[in-house]
Amino acid sequence: MERPGRNEPCYCGSGKKYKQCHMAADLATDRENRAWTDASRDLRLELLEYAAGERFQDEAGTAAARYWDDLYTAGTLSLMSPSEAERFYDWFVFDYALPDGSRVIDAFRDEKGDGLSPYGRQLLDDWAAGAPMGGYELTGYERQTLQLKEIVSGEALELYEPGGHGDAMLGAIILGRPVAIQGRYEFFSMPAYIPADEIADLREKLAAAREAGSDGSAADFLRRHNVLFIHHALEQAKVAGRPPVARLDPHHPSGAVQQRARHERARVKGPSSMPESAPQQVQSHRKAI
């Protein structure tokens, strides 16, 4: 809604000038929204940078080998593309179990939580308790609102995504982590998708893994086994004759990429869903592999 000028009649129909009616409340709402936007953007970047720091370097190498099915390891972490790095560190922060059973986000909460703004602390608590990275069938969309169905639990979800459905068509499986921000869901990191014609036996693989270890909720299962989505996408890329990871693409630039520069090139969006640091082409969904 376009707001009136200060001395124009208020939009509510009260007959008062806007400055004497709803202007103060609207400005307060704007400040609140900016605070959430800033907190969300900053927290995303802080979490990614914290996970990519020297403290977790050895563990990140072990985690990468698991996530990428040994196509990236400790010695090749720096060769991940910006989108690969963002998705990997998303998983590493929230879903990977460190040797003591804790997660990177738990260490971040203990060490950094008290220094966050009230908005940042609330987001951190909500995200830490939120859903693991999963696969969501795209069942419908209206502009930037996606209608999704989580393929393990069957739970329906509406999610705001600034790039809309991108190149993903109905029936595709979108890979991402939904996080709650101001009463709606967004993906924490840049989502990817598996097209419908490459889903193949993915559901059967997930069902077999769940049957083999049926204890726990769908969320518990996903946190332990969501790497199956990536492994399946890697397999399908090989079947289709595509390089399974960026470092095996002959067009991928060689040489190490500094962690901070890599994350600054990756999309880090806030609740307003305005991209903060990425080029425009990063905004739509990319095929998972």
Cα distance spanning the termini: 40 Å
Tell me the β content: 5-15%
User: Based on CA inertia axes, which overall geometry fits?
Assistant: globular
How many beta strands in the DSSP annotation?
8
Mean pLDDT: 87
User: Order of strands across the widest beta sheet?
Assistant: 3-2-1-4-7-8
- Give the C-alpha Rg: 21 Å
The helicity comes to: 25-40%
The tally of helices reads 9
Please identify the structural class as seen in this structure: alpha+beta
Give me the strand/helix succession: HHHHHEEEEEEEHHHHE
The biggest beta sheet, please? 6 strands, mixed
Low-confidence stretches: 255-284
Overview in brief:
The chain is an alpha+beta fold. The chain is 39% helix and 13% strand.
Could you characterize what this model shows?
- By secondary structure, the protein is α+β, with helices and mostly antiparallel strands.
- The protein is built from nine helices and eight strands.
- It has helices spanning 23-51, 57-67, 82-94, 104-112, 118-128, 202-212, 218-225, 227-240, 259-265; strands spanning 134-142, 145-150, 156-160, 173-176, 178-181, 184-187, 192-194, 286-287.
- The strands form two sheets. It has a six-stranded mixed β-sheet with strand order 3-2-1-4-7-8, with no helix packed on it. A two-stranded antiparallel sheet has the order 5-6.
- Strand 5 and strand 6 (184-187) form a beta hairpin.
- Helix 1 (23-51) packs across helix 5 (118-128).
- The longest helix is centred in the N-terminal third of the chain and has 29 residues, at 23-51.
- The chain is globular, with a radius of gyration of 21 Å.
- Residues 255-284 have low confidence and may be disordered.
